[in-house]
Specification:
It is built from 8 helices and no strands. It has helices spanning 2-17, 23-38, 52-63, 69-75, 77-85, 104-109, 111-116, 133-139. Helix 4 (69-75) packs antiparallel against helix 5. The termini are far apart. GO terms for molecular function: flavin adenine dinucleotide binding; N,N-dimethylaniline monooxygenase activity; NADP binding. This is Flavin containing monooxygenase 4. Pfam families: FMO-like.
Length: 140
């Protein structure tokens, strides 16, 4: 009974939090905002937005935590390759500077393994191996 009460309570809470206004109201608000921007009453804040990775790089540079990719290519080409061409993850900001972490290199080099492993739900048999005689008998 306690679990059922908790489930009902959670359902009510989430319904209250997830009320989405009607699309007509959203469109009216967007149109009104556009008109205010066109008339010069309101500033278009979308121009002030930064690119996410550039923003992270700027912050990291301010505190001395942004790694130098050219220097990394000289010292550790494999790591530099992953930092430059791989996904931007917080690990790369733990290679140097305050908050430096000795495990950052390994975390960067294994991040794809940790991402893909949970997605592998079943193992597919190797199709390059010849099927056994019992397999052919079952098929026949």
């Amino acid at each position: 009974a306690g679990t059922e009460l908790q489930a009902r309570w959670a359902t009510r809470v989430f319904k209250g939090l997830c009320r989405i206004p009607p699309s007509q109201k959203l469109m009216a608000e967007a149109t009104k905002k556009e008109q205010l921007i066109e008339r010069g009453v309101m500033k278009d804040s979308s121009e002030d937005k930064l690119e996410f990775i550039q923003y992270l790089d700027d912050l990291a540079a301010c505190i001395g935590a942004k790694p130098s990719v050219p220097l990394l290519f000289l010292k550790d080409p494999r790591l530099a390759w992953e930092v430059f061409f791989g996904p931007c993850t917080p690990y790369q900001y733990r290679l140097v500077g305050p908050g430096k972490w000795d495990g950052a290199r390994n975390a960067i080099l294994t991040q794809w393994d940790r991402t893909l492993k949970p997605l592998k739900t079943r193992i597919v048999p190797d199709s390059t191996k010849p099927a056994s005689m019992s397999h052919y008998l079952k098929v026949w």
